[in-house]
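Database export, one record per block. Field names are fixed; values are copied verbatim from the stored entry.
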Amino acid sequence: MSRRRTAVRPIADRVAEAAEASLAAQNHVSAIDVLVRMGWLDPGAVKLWRLGRVPCLERVVQSNLPRISEAMKAFRSWAAAKGLFPSATQYAALTPQRQTSRFSQSGDPTIEKTLQDTLGLEGPFGEEARALAEKASTAPELVVILPLNNDWTCHRCGNGGGMLIMEQPGPACLRCAGLDDLEFLQAGDALLTRRVKAKSAKSAVVVRFSRTRKRYERQGLLIEPQALAEVQRDLGPRDRE
């Protein structure tokens, strides 16, 4: 008795379905949206990639390169037929260096552009696509932990104590993470905090775990000392009271 084979849907059809669903849900669509909806890319893997723990997104796509290339070709054709407006998006990694997250292992500019573009319709939808592109280009804030105790060891240098930043292998001290040149600004002065953060090219949010509330709570910022000094001088003692 012969078994009936389940028909395999063409990749182009799956791409179009995923792209249409994403566009309908949020008025914009990217290659990442399509790969996630197709089941080829796990959202958790995308998060690790944004955190800089995955060298390139291609490594975590659950399909081979020829099929990925076919899907991206179909995505471009679908987008062209829809008349979508592209907005180039530079995904900044959540690392102290804020380097641009790479999509392909080869780094080929054509592949990178295809995966970077966020697409939306002209008019209001196009504005949403551009806004999303700008948001993605800004890396999420770095988070530094003020531990409840100093019983931890830096996975890079073996030292411990003080604040730490979590990396994939384990906790890292601020010196190894390249943040030891920053100064701690305690939360409380909203005006000062806002202006210093805007002026400081490098910053990180400092949090500490609350045993009573069972969550991490913001304690302040790590910011560049020069930025703090400049803002304090500009504000003057009267404005900061």
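Remark 1: The CA atoms of residues 151 and 206 lie 18 Å apart.
Remark 2: Residues 11-137 form one domain.
End of record.
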